[in-house]
Amino acid sequence: MERTFLAIKPDGVQRGLVGEIIGRFETKGFTLVGLKFMTVSRELAETHYGVHRERPFFPGLVDFITSGPVVAMVWEGDGVIASARKIIGATNPLNSEPGTIRGDFAVNVGRNIIHGSDAPETALEEIALWFKQEELVSWQPQIMPWLRE
Ligand code: DAT
Ligand code: MG
């Protein structure tokens, strides 16, 4: 089953949006399989955002992600990687559609509330980077027959 890595960034936590954000993925019908509340080390932040290492915003991005606790999560479901990206919305919240998390709750690209893996390869890499295998819980929600035929 497809899995993706999502993280509520320090701004989402500080603004009290944890429940609201988790609820959106829960009520959509995806399955939570990993969850931890943690402070991010600089090493983890720099690895996670390694693809952006040469970009001018990289130092500020690492400072931001390490500035307070985050909620790291793994969610499971058919098509969850692309669907979660749609639920999250465009990178710049001023371009994110209303109804998306960034569209509803954010106004600045440097404070865009939540991270989501952008492709199957990055999802695998990010899940392995943030979670140990034994921290992930494989389970079948009892409501599954009401979610998929
Ligand atoms: P996304 O988080 O939508 O996958 P990304 O991978 O291109 O976006 O960039 C990672 C994060 O870096 C993004 O969530 C916010 C920050 N960022 C991206 N572009 C930026 C910019 N032009 N100025 C400031 N921060 C930026
Ligand atoms: Mg990205």
Produce a short descriptive summary.
This protein is α+β, with helices and mostly antiparallel strands and 149 residues long. The chain has a four-stranded antiparallel β-sheet with strand order 2-3-1-4. Its EC number is 2.7.4.6.
Structural commentary:
- This protein is of the alpha+beta class and 149 residues long.
- It is built from eight helices and four strands.
- The protein has helices at residues 10-14, 18-28, 42-48, 58-65, 80-88, 101-105, 120-130, 144-147; strands spanning 3-8, 31-38, 70-76, 114-116.
- Strands 2-3-1-4 form a four-stranded antiparallel sheet.
- The longest helix has 11 residues, at 18-28.
- The radius of gyration is 15 Å and the shape is globular.
- The mean pLDDT is 98.
- The structure holds 2'-deoxyadenosine-5'-diphosphate and magnesium ion (MG).
- The site of 2'-deoxyadenosine-5'-diphosphate (DAT) has 9 residues, from loops.
